Amino acid sequence: MQRISVTARLNRSTCDFEDAAFARLESYLAEASRTLEGNPDRQEILGDLEQAVADQCLRRAGHGQRAVTLTDLEPALEEIGSVQVPGAAEAAASSMRVTTRPLQQVSEGALVSGVCQGFARYFGLNVTALRIFAVLLLFVSGGGMILVYLALMLLLPYSPLVPGGRPLRWLPAKCRAFMEFVRAKFSLATN
């Protein structure tokens, strides 16, 4: 007999995990717990971390559809990132900003093409504030910002779509299809 999946309670959510994914999640949470050793808010942070993992896994695997696999879990953990010791991250950020994510257009949640969504994810900004700033630049530049946006649409690569995620809105889906057609037509490789 072989155990195929494990049900785990992560903060307020319950998820089914395949054995390999559960083992990876256990090591991730154990590492986070060791990193937060001595932190007075350790339990609260770990609870928030568990909920973030559950939210990411449920989004990727679909609510109640199947057990979370290692291929579902790895991108979720990468997006959440590892727990950092307070103060160490601030020192590293002040000396030099290092990101592991490439600058890409993000179609999920996009209004037009995903340029603002991609910049917001890359720089860790609020996407709504960035969109408001882009609209203000549009008015200040007398419409010249439209050319910049179109150039960014053409030059920035698209992030891969989340398998099983929500379908794209009409305009971002059409923009993505059109830009991929233009890139293929003119042999513009952006990846």
Radius of gyration from the CA trace?
A: 20 Å
Q: pLDDT under 50 segments (min length 5)?
A: none
Give a count of the beta strands, DSSP E runs of length 2 or more.
Answer: 2
Percent range for β-strand residues: 5-15%
Give the end-to-end Cα distance, rounded to a whole number of Å.
45 Å
Topology as a string of helices (H) and strands (E): EEHHHHHHHH
What is the structural class? mainly alpha
Give a concise summary.
The chain has 8 helices and 2 strands, in the order E-E-H-H-H-H-H-H-H-H. The protein is mostly helical.
Task: Pick out its properties.
191 residues; 2 domains; 8 helices; two-stranded antiparallel ribbon; 6% strand
Describe the model.
The protein has helices at 19-35, 42-61, 70-80, 88-95, 115-123, 127-140, 144-155, 170-185; strands spanning 5-10, 13-18. The protein folds into two domains: 5-95, no CATH class; 115-185, no CATH class. The mean pLDDT is 81. The chain contains eight helices and two strands. 56% of the residues lie in helices and 6% in strands. Strand 1 and strand 2 (13-18) form a beta hairpin. It is mainly α and 191 residues long. The termini are far apart. The relative contact order is 0.10.
